[in-house]
Amino acid sequence: MSWDVFIMRFPPEAGAVDEIAGDWEPPSLGSGREVRVVLAEVLPGIEFSPGGWGDYEGLGFSVSTPVNEADDAPVAGVSLFIHGGSEAAVHAALAVADALKARAFDTGSGDFLTADSAQSAFDAWRAYRDRALGQVGGDPGGDPGEEIRLRAGAPGAVDHCQGRRRTDGAAAAISIDRIPTP
């Protein structure tokens, strides 16, 4: 489960997404090459696959970001899929937005992130994640590499999530299945 943040050069006067004109066209953040260079400066050690998927491991959090536009193609927006519980993730998301001269949007709350609001948005996401995973406050315990299984019942279905505990204590999902129940 990730905290999903979208980076784009949203109009600075917009206080909410619904205040953006329907015919608005987002300005480019730069070319694919330029955006990947900025991400590498802000997230030192980020590794990009040949397809443009970037993976970064920070202290207590990780970021995955698809920047699969060609080197010379314009990039309108960048998605950050953030895993883990470290508050450093908040600073990373805001630093990426600042470096791209853009704004960060929390897809879970539907709000723009600012220096004043980002921490509370992240805290709300962590609380939601912990409830969804059946955890109460932080790391549920266990050893790195230990198999994790989660079953969360919904009317008419059972959801299964299976993964392995990462060395930073976060659960890395491997598979999610929805199995109808009688």
Give a brief description.
With 182 residues, the protein is an alpha+beta fold.
Strand content: 35-45%
**SSE succession:** EEHEEEEEHEEHEEE
Tell me the total number of β-strands.
Answer: 12
Tally of structural domains: 2
- CATH-assigned homologous superfamily of the largest domain: ZipA, C-terminal FtsZ-binding domain
- The CATH topology of the largest domain turns out to be Cell Division Protein Zipa, Chain: A
Mean pLDDT: 79
Notes on the structure:
This protein has helices at 32-42, 88-99, 118-132, and strands spanning 3-8, 30-31, 47-48, 53-58, 61-66, 74-75, 77-84, 103-106, 111-113, 147-154, 157-165, 171-180. The chain is α+β, with helices and mostly antiparallel strands. 23% of the residues are buried. A seven-stranded antiparallel sheet has the order 3-4-5-7-1-8-9. Strands 10-11-12 form a three-stranded antiparallel sheet, with no helix packed on it. A two-stranded antiparallel ribbon has the order 2-6. The chain has three helices and twelve strands, in the order E-E-H-E-E-E-E-E-H-E-E-H-E-E-E. The chain folds into two domains: 3-132, ZipA, C-terminal FtsZ-binding domain (Cell Division Protein Zipa, Chain: A); 147-180, no CATH class.
Note the topology.
Layout: E1 3-8, E2 30-31, H1 32-42, E3 47-48, E4 53-58, E5 61-66, E6 74-75, E7 77-84, H2 88-99, E8 103-106, E9 111-113, H3 118-132, E10 147-154, E11 157-165, E12 171-180
Antiparallel strand pairs: 1-7, 1-8, 2-6, 3-4, 4-5, 5-7, 8-9, 10-11, 11-12
